[in-house]
Specification:
This protein is of the alpha+beta class. The protein has a single domain, classed as Sandwich (Jelly Rolls). The protein is 26% helix and 37% strand. It has six helices and twelve strands. The strands form three sheets. Strands 2-1-8-7-10 form a five-stranded antiparallel beta sheet. A hairpin with a 4-residue loop joins strand 7 and strand 8. The longest helix is centred in the first third of the chain and has 12 residues. It is globular, with a radius of gyration of 16 Å. 24% of the residues are buried. The chain binds 4-(methylsulfanyl)-2-oxobutanoic acid and nickel (II) ion (NI). 4-(methylsulfanyl)-2-oxobutanoic acid binds next to strand 6 and strand 11.
Length: 180
C-alpha cells in the first residue's frame, strides 16, 4: 500500500491523483486508520492470520465483495458512485484485498485534506467508526475483497452532512484523535 495526499485536481476518480506528498503509517494511525500487509501465500497461511485479526477485533461474520463491470452489469456504476460519496459508518470498516487494487480516501480532519490509500492484494485496512472516507477502484477496474462484520453482514453508510457532523460515532471519533 502507498498513501499520499490527493491532488484535488479534476479528472477520473480512478486515476492516481498523486500530489507526490507521501503519508506514513504513523500519520494514518494518528487519525485512527490501521494498515497491515498480510501476503497471500500458496499454503493459505494468510487465511489464519486474517482470521486472527478478525477474532482479535471481535468480528463475527464476513463476506467477499467482488466489484467489476462484467460481474455487476447495470449495478456497477450506481455502486461505485455510492462508494465515492464521502460517508461514514457507525462501525469499523475493515477490508482485506484478495484480488485487484483500490483507492480508499480518508479525510485528515485537522487539514480537511484527502489521504489516498492505494491498496493492493494482501493489504488489510481498518477505518474507525465516524471517519469520513470514500472508495473507488483504480484503472484496473476490478477488485475482490473480504469484509468483516460485528453483526450481520450489511453495509450502512451515512453521507457527510449536518446530520453526520452531529452523529455520536462521529463525535466519539473526533474525541479519539484529539490527544495524539
Ligand atoms: C465503503 O464503505 O467505502 C466500502 O465498503 C467500499 C467498498 S468495499 C471494497
Ligand atoms: Ni465506507
Amino acid at each position: 500500500m502507498r498513501a499520499y495526499y490527493f491532488d484535488n485536481l479534476e479528472g477520473d476518480q480512478r486515476l492516481p491523483h498523486d500530489s507526490g506528498v507521501e503519508v506514513s503509517d504513523d500519520i494514518l494511525r494518528s487519525i485512527g486508520v490501521l494498515h497491515r500487509h498480510i501476503p497471500i501465500d500458496a499454503e493459505g497461511k494468510y487465511e489464519q492470520e486474517v482470521a486472527a485479526v478478525a477474532k482479535e477485533r471481535d468480528y463475527k461474520d464476513q463476506d467477499i465483495i467482488s466489484i467489476s463491470k462484467e460481474g455487476l452489469g447495470d449495478a456497477y456504476e450506481p455502486m461505485l458512485n455510492a462508494f465515492y460519496n464521502e460517508h461514514m459508518h457507525e462501525e469499523e470498516e475493515i477490508r482485506y484485498l484478495l484480488e485487484g487494487c483500490a483507492f480508499f480516501d480518508v479525510r485528515e480532519h485537522s487539514s480537511e485534506r484527502w489521504i489516498r490509500c492505494h491498496t493492493g492484494v494482501g493489504d488489510l485496512l481498518v477505518m474507525p467508526p465516524g471517519i469520513y472516507h470514500r472508495f473507488t477502484l483504480d484503472m484496473g477496474n476490478q477488485l475482490k475483497a473480504m469484509r468483516f462484520f460485528k453483526n450481520e453482514p450489511k453495509w450502512v453508510a451515512y453521507n457527510r452532512g449536518q446530520e453526520t457532523d452531529a452523529n455520536p460515532y462521529r463525535l466519539e471519533y473526533l474525541k479519539s484523535i484529539e490527544v495524539q
